[in-house]
Amino acid sequence: MDTSASTATDPAQPIRIGIVGYGNLGRGVEAAIAKNPDMSLVGIFTRRPADSITPIDPEASVFSIDDLAGREGDIDVLILCGGSKSDLPEQGPELASRFNTVDSFDTHARIPEYFETMDAVARRAETTALISTGWDPGMFSINRLLGEALLPDGETYTFWGRGLSQGHSDAVRRVPGVAAGVQYTLPASDAIDAVRSGSRPELSTREKHTRECFVVLEEGADADAVREAIVTMPHYFADYDTTVTFISAEELARDHSAMPHGGFVLRSGSTGDGHSQVIEYSLALESNPEFTASVLVAYSRAVHRLSQLKQHGAVTVLDVPPGLLSPKSAAQLRAELL
């Protein structure tokens, strides 16, 4: 991939960003754009009534998603902040047919299929579409690749948490008798320590993570029945050691309204005559959506540059040279970071 034309971004000619969708992720993208002087927010585009949206910046413009028609010349990159289940499979190809896009499609099993769809659309339209970025997929993907490449004789381990899982929390809330609740994924410290030792342990699903639920019961609900329904739930909790703690609505609001997350990628391997080597990358996030948004915004800079170089089609984080993420020139990066 030829990136020789990359230069420092000129704040006097900022990259013009549009946000599609304004939930937790879209709000995080707006906040991240404000921290990047070489970028400007063209507007927030939503399926909801525009006057129902209250941006962080009261001066930010809010439009209907239908108002994207005819805006191709005004927007350098659209950051798509919809969900992976139904929003992105529909919006991604439609918008990549007209704009450069960045998204956080995270249904791992469907990424190859989604890539092929986006690649075909973007090549026809001569746009650049970066898919599946954030921290996993995204930063963790890069570190899994580096670990495998640097230590071919080895094993890769990924641990998630401690963090609030939105999907598992939703599953908890759907249990009869549950008024509200959240679920946290916790990496098993013993398993992480075993990996860090270089012993390359074989770990089961149950040995790698535990799950912790905090639940507000509906009035009159049977606590034992609710606990049993949660801990035996297939695909979500049955394969894990799961604890269920019943709390009040006030405690839930006070102690569990934040969205922390994080995790670890480790590669344990051997070099030479069997010397043990361990590579570790970790994240500790107070706000999952805000960090994910920051990754999306950095990659929008890379997408803009790739588009200028006429490198069209779909790309992933594994295809993008890291220097393109920085507002600094290649010469600055060599002098300051290399």
What does this structure look like?
- The chain is an alpha/beta fold.
- The chain is 33% helix and 25% strand.
- The strands form 3 sheets. Strands 3-2-1-4-5-6-14 form a 7-stranded parallel sheet, with helices on both faces. A 4-stranded mixed sheet has the order 8-9-10-11. It has a 3-stranded antiparallel sheet with strand order 7-12-13, sandwiched between helices.
- Helix 1 packs across helix 10 and helix 2 packs parallel to helix 3 (111-125).
- The chain is globular, with a radius of gyration of 22 Å.
- The mean pLDDT is 95.
Q: What attributes does this structure have?
A:
alpha/beta, 338 residues, 11 helices, four-stranded mixed β-sheet, globular, seven-stranded parallel β-sheet, 14 strands, 33% helix
Biggest sheet strand order reads: 3-2-1-4-5-6-14
The largest pleated sheet is described as: 7 strands, parallel
Unreliable spans: none
- Helix proportion range: 25-40%
- Element string (H = helix, E = strand): EHEEEHEHEHEEHEHHEHEHEEHEH
SS class:
alpha/beta
Rg on CA atoms, Å: 22 Å
From the spread of the alpha carbons, the general shape counts as globular
Query: How large is the count of helical segments?
Result: 11
Number of strands: 14
Proportion of residues in β-strands: 25-35%
**Overall average residue pLDDT:** 95
Distance linking N and C termini: 20 Å
